Amino acid sequence: MNGHTLLPPLNALRVFEVVARHLNFRLAADELGVTQAAVAQQIRGLETSLALKLFERLPRGLRLTEPGKGYSLAVREAFALITTATQALKQVGQELTVSVTPTFAAKWLIPRLSSFSVAHPQIDLQVLATDRISQFRPGGADIAVRYGRAPFENMLNAELFLTERIVAVASPVLLEQLGRPESVEKLQAYTLLHDAHSFWPEFIDQAFQSPIRQPSKNVRFNQTVLAIEAAAAGQGLALASYHFVKADLEAGRLALAMAHQMSLDKAYYLVWPRNAHHPAALETVRTWLLEQARL
Length: 295
What we know:
By secondary structure, this protein is of the alpha/beta class. It has helices at 10-22, 25-32, 36-50, 66-91, 102-109, 113-119, 172-178, 184-187, 200-208, 224-232, 242-251, 279-294, and strands at 55-57, 62-64, 95-100, 124-129, 143-148, 156-170, 191-194, 217-220, 237-241, 255-256, 262-273.
């Protein structure tokens, strides 16, 4: 004797837990996907190995004996503990948070997320949409898309993600009604939709080599995505990153209103800490984001 108690087979314990819940061999067999005879055989074997009766056989169904009641509770708790531990083990390194602005989330990232889920079902991708500069782990983001100029803070990796170009867009219906704003005078017919970047003065100066002499009608939004949606609804002209309106242009919800496009010395960068929290999952997400940027 080595002093160790020989545990019953795990499969027999699993069958016992199901039978204890249903108190019926047939219902237990249905849940387990086996025959009723196989269930009964597993229970008989378990009772033999334990040298005690776990169930009383009744004309209709079963009843747990007193030892069976206590044992069923313990076995159920044990299986619950194993399930919880297994789920936690599978999740290690598989949850990843990406921080982006609300407009980037709505107009670029979210439409692509289904392809990520199909390609990488093992990674639970969390999207944190905020205009604030997110803190990195613990308790924050694992990787972020930041708009600006490199370099960023120390201890951060930064990789060029998307170069910036600003375009003027409007509803195709509105452009047909008012005519394309090919001059400062024709631009006066439009309401200018502004976001927090306030690109319109510089854009007009570049496009026409002349500032607007008479103020146009203006509507201001704190988020670029709101200006884009207002433009799609026919409320005026909006300036936005080409990356944010590309899908709407292809779908015909928006059209380019002017030939001029404005380049900026800022760009979108992927930024992540050098001591990455989940390096394998982070590399998968980083690679996928870069692949999407090339599409």
